[in-house]
Amino acid sequence: MTNARLVNADDLGALLALFADSDVSRSAEPEQAEKIWTQTLAREGVAVFVSDVDSRIVATCMLITTPNLLRGGRQFGILENAATHPDFQGRGHGRAVVTAALAEAWKQDCYQVLMQSGRVDPRVHRFYEACGFVPGLRTAYAARRPER
Fold it and tell me: Disulfide-capable partner of 33 in 15, 28, 74, 147 (CB 3.0 to 4.6 Å)?
């Protein structure tokens, strides 16, 4: 059975290794990553889940929850930075971290969890749908920072 857990402070190197081996965007430089990691661990409303195999992190995702004045005051969540090592895809590790993140969101009384994917691979979208995400309920927009 594949399980997920919350990260601990010592997991940064293993996470950066996972990101380097996965088809995700470029990670922060090491010095910047350490500062960001410290901020991430200290920030209320941020939870990072991982799945391990032999002390190696093979999947992760981040849940960000935020207070909300609408929806009867119920929070909402955002799922971000989901990645599974290519050698471990299809073995339940991605599902374990996403399931753990959703369980935490529901425990915090979030009324919904949003996520976006820029991936074109239909298997990725089938995976998220199998985890309970429903496409087409919302329209996503992204504003990019203007070039300097």
Answer: 28
- Give tens-digit pLDDT for 54-113: 989 999 999 999 999 999 999 999 999 999 999 999 999 999 999 999 999 999 999 999
Please state the domain count of the chain: 1
Are the C-beta atoms of residues 53 and 88 closer than 8 Å to each other?
Answer: yes
E strand or H helix at 46, and its extent? strand 46-53
d(Cα 3, Cα 94) in Å, to the nearest integer?
A: 10
Pull the structure tokens for residue 81.
């930075």
The whole model's pTM is what? 0.93
Tell me whether residue 135 is in a domain: no
H-type alpha helices, 43-143: 93-107, 122-130
* Token pair recorded at residue 16: 């950066």
Domain region containing 30: 5-130
